[in-house]
User: Fold these one by one.
Assistant:
Number 1:
Amino acid sequence: MAAPNTAPSPVRDDAEAISRAAKALAQGLQVRAIVGLTRTGRTVQLLSAGRPQAPIYAFTSEEKVYRRLALWWGVHPVRSGAFEDTEGMARRMEERMKEMGAAARGGRYPHLGGDAAAPMVHTNFVKVHRVAEASTV
């Protein structure tokens, strides 16, 4: 008898591949949270469908997206202003995560999103973000 095929199904696009990678990182690193920046909510919806163990904190500046995010499994929507650059985005998201008690100094979490400076770019990165040990503000 042949072993069942346990390989994941092929991905349709970058957003699906990145959401799968974020879930794998979260499980492998045993993190307390996954953080996503979203304009449309699609990547966060894909991530939610994968049922990661860690809660998903989804940052968006769009009111309609914010309300929709609350309907998805494991997602905690967070209202944010518009982000002008990726470094500033990561810094501001980290501060909000610490304020909410979802990230501790020295901790880490997968962070996924699109280039904040390029409004037409969809999800194009996932990285492991390490929370600063000391406040940089």
Number 2:
Amino acid sequence: MNLEVVGLRFKPAGKILQYVADGLALHRGEKCVAESENGLEIASVVLAPRTVDLQAGQHDLKAVLRKATLQDFEQAEALGQRAKETFALCRSRIREVDLPMKLVSVDFTLDGQKAILTEFAPISVRMAKEQGMALNPSRISGVCGRLKCCLAYEMAVYKAIKDELPRIGDLYVTEEGPGRVVDITVVGEAFAVELEESGNRVFIRLPSAEERTNNCNGCSNRGYTPGHDEDTF
């Protein structure tokens, strides 16, 4: 059975998720409506539809619901204003009860049924661990004796790239057929898929990787090298 699969992104630096085009003539850069893990949202088409051969039961991909309409955009704009008001209210309540958190943003799903709150995380050793840094105090501490502020700045970029990558074990449909993700590299902004039928590995680089420099510190490695110790996680 041939299906048209399209790559969508719900956030500017979010993960690229695969959906069935369901007969819609979608083009890169267009907006559409699909169901995310949070609910109905407007998404951007970042990978144009491509035809793949899938058997029944080989996938659990959701279908794109429709191209975004003027009504969808108007609804999103109204919800954006509602989100600003909710943000101000939540921040006020946080101050009132002195909660140890900093609210970064508030978003609503397109149907207005769910609010999504994003919180700023303080600098912690966990950030160094997640970025694969050696927990050496001299390397992760600044001249002030505290954890380096850059851990937080770099964490945002690191997390943005990591969020775009699929998880190991995820089903991913390639142009050569479906398979499972067996390796990822945040530095190289790429991942490896082992095809179910042939067992061969296909290496895929994120479309956004071309917009960034991917030099591997200390080894001059550029891009993705399968099995490379310094950029494989």
